C-alpha cells in the first residue's frame, strides 16, 4: 500500500520568524532555537550538529536566512566566537553559505553533490540546468532520515571494529546472512548465508561473475538491447558480445540456443525481471525454457536482478529454477543507496573457489562499512519500508508520465520500473528527438545507447523518471518531449 510514510521523530530545534523590516526580495531571518542540551562535546560542535540535523529534517529548509552571529549568541547565551565557529563548521560541511551583506543561508543539501555526466574521456562535467531523464538514479532524499538512523546505530555496534578487520574475500558471515534475508523478502530467493558472496556493487558482481565463467576472446550472449554497463565489463574482459533476438515478451529461448550453438558461447547475461531498457519481465514459461536450454547445451546464465525488488509479487528467479546453471547478481543500489556499494553474487557451489579467487585478486576483501549500514537497514526492517516507498514513488511518477504522454503507446512499458521505454511513431526519428530535446534542456537516451555492435535496435527511447528531485521538473521535461513527438518537424535537423 502506498501511503504517507513518516520518518521517525527525532529531536528537533524550533524556528520562528523575526519581526522587523527587511529589503524586498530577501527571505526573512528566522529565530532558531537549536536542541543542544543533550549533545556531548564542545558547544560549537553541538550547534553545528543541531544545524545539520534541522537542515536534514526540514526544520530549516533551503534558502532560510539564519540569525546573525550576534543574535544567536544572545539567544543561546554563548559568545559570538562560539557561533562563528559553529557556522564555520557547518559551512565546511557545505550546509550553509554566507553572502556578504545578505547574511548566512541554508544551502539545498540535495545540491551538495552536483549532478554529473560522464564525457568521452571519463571527465566529469556539470549538468547545470539540464532536466536529466537519462540516468536511472533513484530519488534518495525521502530516505535520508532512515540512512542517518542506521548509520548512527552502526556507529554504536559493539562488533563494529571486528567487522572492520580483514575478512575472507567472501565477506563477513553476519552481513551475508542479512543479504540472504533481503533476497528472501525482496526476490523470494531462498538461499543460505554461505551461498552469498559480497561484491562492490552490481557492477563488481557482474565483473566477478563474468570473469569466473569466461576467458578473453570468448563470446557472451546478451539481449538485443542491454545494460550499457555490461558492455563496459565485456570490453574490459575482452569478450565478444552477440545480441540475441527478443520479441514483445523478451528473450527468445530458441534464439538463445541457436546463437550459443552457432557462436560457441558458454554464457548468457540477461535481466529476466524489468529488463533495462525494455522493462520486459520474462514469463515463467520462458524462464523454465531458458534454464532447460542452459542445461542442455552447457550455458551459464548470468541473471542481473537489480530492478527485481520493484516487481511484486516477485517472479521466480532463474537461480531458483536452475541453481546449477545460474549466477545471480544484484545490488542494493536501486533498492537502498548506490553509495553503499553493496553488491552480491549467488552462484553454484562448484564455482565458489573460482569466485573467491577473483574477489581476492581484485578487491581482497569487501568494503564492509557500506554493507554494515545495509545490514542494519535490513535487520531493522527499514530496508523493506524504503523499498516500499521506492515502489510508491515509481507508481506516482509513472502515473504522472502517463498522463502527460497520454497520446502515446506506453502499453508495452511496465509501470513498475523507474523508466519508460517508449517506442516512437514512424514519423519520429529517435536521434532527432534526442537532439531536439537536448537543445531544449532535456536529456534522454535513444535505443542505440543500449545496442550491441551493429545489431539492430528499435525506434525507441528510454526516459528515466526518478533522477530529477521534483515532479515539476519531470512534468516540464515530459511536456517538452510530448511537444516534440507531436510535432516532429520541430526537432528535425539538416533543413538545408
Ligand atoms: C541492469 C543493471 N545492472 C547493474 C547496475 C549497476 O548497479 P550498481 O550501482 O550496484 O553497480 C545497473 C545500474 O544502473 C543496472 O541498470
TrEMBL record:
Keywords: DNA-binding, Pyridoxal phosphate, Transcription, Transcription regulation. SMART domains: HTH_GNTR. The keyword Transcription applies. It holds the Pfam family GntR. It comes from the Bacteria. One of its GO terms (molecular function) is DNA-binding transcription factor activity. Residues 41-109 form the HTH gntR-type domain. Gene3D superfamilies: Aspartate Aminotransferase, domain 1, Type I PLP-dependent aspartate aminotransferase-like (Major domain), Winged helix-like DNA-binding domain superfamily/Winged helix DNA-binding domain. In the C-terminal section; belongs to the class-I pyridoxal-phosphate-dependent aminotransferase family. This is HTH gntR-type domain-containing protein. It comes from Niveispirillum lacus. The lineage of its organism: Bacteria, Pseudomonadati, Pseudomonadota, Alphaproteobacteria, Rhodospirillales.
Amino acid at each position: 500500500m502506498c501511503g504517507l510514510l513518516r520518518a521517525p521523530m527525532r529531536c528537533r530545534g524550533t524556528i520562528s520568524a523575526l519581526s522587523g523590516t527587511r529589503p524586498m526580495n530577501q527571505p526573512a531571518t528566522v529565530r532558531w532555537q537549536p536542541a543542544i542540551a543533550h549533545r556531548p562535546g564542545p558547544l560549537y560542535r553541538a550547534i553545528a550538529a543541531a544545524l545539520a540535523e534541522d537542515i536534514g529534517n526540514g526544520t530549516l529548509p533551503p534558502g532560510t536566512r539564519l540569525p546573525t552571529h550576534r543574535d544567536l549568541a544572545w539567544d543561546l547565551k554563548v559568545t559570538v566566537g562560539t557561533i562563528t565557529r559553529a557556522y564555520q563548521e557547518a559551512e565546511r560541511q557545505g550546509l550553509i553559505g554566507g553572502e556578504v551583506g545578505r547574511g548566512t543561508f541554508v544551502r539545498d543539501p540535495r545540491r551538495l553533490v552536483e549532478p554529473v555526466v560522464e564525457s568521452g574521456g571519463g571527465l566529469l562535467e556539470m549538468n547545470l540546468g539540464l532536466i536529466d531523464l537519462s540516468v536511472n538514479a533513484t530519488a534518495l532524499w525521502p530516505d535520508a532520515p532512515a540512512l542517518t538512523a542506521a548509520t548512527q546505530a552502526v556507529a554504536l555496534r559493539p562488533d563494529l571494529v571486528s567487522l572492520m578487520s580483514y575478512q575472507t574475500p567472501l565477506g563477513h558471515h553476519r552481513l551475508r546472512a542479512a543479504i540472504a534475508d533481503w533476497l528472501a523478502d525482496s526476490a523470494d530467493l531462498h538461499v543460505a548465508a554461505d551461498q552469498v558472496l559480497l561484491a562492490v556493487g552490481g557492477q563488481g558482481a557482474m565483473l566477478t561473475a563474468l570473469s569466473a565463467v569466461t576467458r578473453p576472446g570468448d563470446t557472451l550472449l546478451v539481449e538485443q538491447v542491454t545494460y550499457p554497463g555490461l558492455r563496459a565489463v565485456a570490453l574490459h574482459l575482452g569478450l565478444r558480445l552477440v545480441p540475441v533476438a527478443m520479441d514483445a515478451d523478451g528473450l527468445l529461448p530458441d534464439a538463445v540456443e541457436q546463437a550459443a550453438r552457432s557462436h560457441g558461447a558458454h554464457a548468457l547475461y540477461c535481466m529476466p525481471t524489468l529488463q533495462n531498457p525494455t522493462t520486459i519481465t520474462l514469463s515463467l514459461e520462458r524462464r523454465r525454457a531458458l534454464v532447460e536450454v542452459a542445461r542442455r547445451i552447457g550455458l551459464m546464465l548470468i541473471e542481473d536482478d537489480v530492478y527485481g525488488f520493484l516487481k511484486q509479487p516477485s517472479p521466480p528467479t532463474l537461480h531458483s529454477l536452475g541453481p546449477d546453471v545460474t549466477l545471480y547478481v544484484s545490488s542494493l543500489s536501486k533498492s537502498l543507496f548506490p553509495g553503499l556499494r553493496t553488491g552480491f553474487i549467488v552462484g553454484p557451489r562448484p564455482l565458489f573457489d573460482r569466485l573467491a579467487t577473483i574477489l581476492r585478486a581484485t578487491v581482497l576483501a569487501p568494503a564492509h562499512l557500506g554493507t554494515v549500514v545495509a545490514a542494519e537497514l535490513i535487520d531493522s526492517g527499514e530496508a523493506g519500508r524504503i523499498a516500499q516507498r521506492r515502489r510508491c514513488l515509481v507508481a506516482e511518477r509513472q502515473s504522472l508520465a502517463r498522463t502527460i504522454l497520454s497520446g502515446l503507446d506506453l502499453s508495452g512499458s511496465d509501470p513498475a520500473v523507474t523508466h519508460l521505454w517508449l517506442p516512437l511513431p514512424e514519423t519520429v526519428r529517435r536521434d532527432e528527438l534526442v537532439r531536439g530535446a537536448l537543445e531544449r534542456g532535456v536529456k534522454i537516451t535513444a535505443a542505440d545507447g543500449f545496442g550491441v555492435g551493429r545489431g539492430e535496435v528499435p525506434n525507441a527511447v528510454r526516459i528515466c523518471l526518478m533522477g530529477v528531485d521534483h515532479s515539476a521538473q519531470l512534468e516540464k521535461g515530459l511536456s517538452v518531449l510530448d511537444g516534440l513527438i507531436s510535432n516532429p518537424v520541430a526537432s528535425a535537423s539538416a533543413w538545408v
